[in-house]
Amino acid sequence: MAETPVHLHFENFSGARGVQLGQQTINLIAGNQYLSNEKKSLILQLNPIYDASHTRNRTTSPPDSACFPGTRKVVIQGITSWADTRIILSKTPVVHIYWFHGFAGSGKSAISLEIAKIYAGSGRLLASYFFFRNAGDRSRMDRFAVTLAAQMAAAVPATASFIKAAVKADPGLLTQGVSLTVQLEQLVYEPFLAALKRGLIVKTLIKGPFLIVVDGLDECEDRQGVVTFIDHMLDFFKKHPSVPLRFFIASRVEEHIRTRLENDGVLLGNLNSHSANEDIKMLLQASFQGAANNDRVIQEYVRIHGEWPTKSHMNRLIWHIKGSFVLASTIFKFIVQPATEEDPSTPMDRLPLALEMNGLDGLYAQTLARSQHLPHFRNIVSTIALLREPLPIVGIANLLGIEPFEVIHVLLNLQAIVHVPGTDEQGEVTLCHTSLRDFLTTESRSGHFFVPPSFHLHLSYYCFGSIYESSDRPAHRYRSWNLHVVQGSGLRISACHESALSHVSLQPVLLLSLSA
């Protein structure tokens, strides 16, 4: 039976952790179809990360990056030309892996999203995974393989029976003790090959090879897991040089990634070599026009003084931004953010200030300064920067022993660089870009805004207090507590200690003894 190209939407669980299903009926929608109960059961059994794909709610599960319509055409065309290459028609050996790298804020995640959307639309996207640092499981490799497998089961239903058979043959395949290579082999690669050999995906293959998009690989905190994934992927394509499957990987240049992917079997794409000035100009012009349509202060200024920003302002902004889309976006938010009692300045006042800032660092410092005089500023910002998993406003307040309104008071001035959810209890407070965490944790860049590693110990105390004030004492709080103790004190934990830490009841005793 030929497969029907579909893609799985995980909005039902976007941002969710520890979902309790009970007797609820969950509709997992694939394309225009509802997945069968059997496939739903398989996907729920795999327990994927629901906010790791390109269909996630980007506001609550960063990165919140998307290409502005009409931009990055040349870059995207280069990637699609590679992804569409058919082995039969190619005169040269086909390269199955494309490593797309560039500096922080250059727009890699936006391009990854666009590529994922293009191939989801044609039914050729097998899976997509967007890593993000300090985002719980999404910043680790533990559930990477099962998440790819769950998406593949929905996108290519012909693979589902083979995934199910693998799980049935080895129920322990889904446990944490199983190696990443075994999970990738038995849950992703072998089911795809099995469906391919049986001719079950011929209909879609007529359009071209399938694609897996992996964004932000440098954001994965499990460096050894990243190396294992890359080595195993390279080995897979050596063994199967004709397989109609491609991997598009986007990341910054990190040594553990570079040494593996600078390989004859990998096509390298440097985003920094593509000028983005025209695209950034298009983005800024549309953004400022949109702001003017909704801001009476700007409208009145333009009525009296004429065009704003002027062409001179725009040229200086583009030169100042130097190809960084995250800087362009953050500067725009800084300029047009609403006036507050602490900062009553207008967008026209802020534009010259933005032009004087030293790139992202200057912008981060200027924005943080708006709230630095407020109570609990340092604890709130340090907590957001270092937490292993993001929390809602109420969660941060409870952890620090303060009122939710005090957290909101600090965050409202920081909305150019921090995502503030619309409600206190739902939605998590997240950084708009990973570069802000880098800024805050690098003393030479952040100065008096520096968040020292020792603050992990403060967080461990807060987590410890939260554990013993809670009746349920969930395991993730123990994990957060012990990780902050380790990072704050510089402890080195042996393999046997690490194994013992997996037993929740032993963690407090063991860690206190280690600290001593």
Characterise the protein shown here:
Keywords: Repeat. Residues 94-252 form the Nephrocystin 3-like N-terminal domain. It is a single chain. Helix 10 (277-294) packs parallel to helix 13 and helix 21 (455-469) runs antiparallel to helix 22. The protein folds into 3 domains: 11-273, Rossmann fold (3-Layer(aba) Sandwich), CATH 3.40.50; 277-356, no CATH class; 377-515, no CATH class. Strand 5 (210-215), helix 8 (223-239) and strand 6 form a beta-alpha-beta unit. It has helices at residues 37-46, 73-83, 108-121, 144-155, 160-169, 180-197, 202-205, 223-239, 255-261, 277-294, 296-305, 311-321, 325-336, 347-356, 359-368, 377-386, 393-400, 404-411, 434-440, 443-446, 455-469, 475-489, 495-501, 507-515; strands spanning 29-30, 33-34, 97-101, 125-130, 210-215, 245-251, 266-270, 418-419, 430-431. The chain has 24 helices and 9 strands. By secondary structure, the protein is an alpha/beta fold.
Note the topology:
Elements: E1 29-30, E2 33-34, H1 37-46, H2 73-83, E3 97-101, H3 108-121, E4 125-130, H4 144-155, H5 160-169, H6 180-197, H7 202-205, E5 210-215, H8 223-239, E6 245-251, H9 255-261, E7 266-270, H10 277-294, H11 296-305, H12 311-321, H13 325-336, H14 347-356, H15 359-368, H16 377-386, H17 393-400, H18 404-411, E8 418-419, E9 430-431, H19 434-440, H20 443-446, H21 455-469, H22 475-489, H23 495-501, H24 507-515
Parallel strand pairs: 3-6, 3-7, 4-5, 5-6
Antiparallel strand pairs: 1-2, 8-9
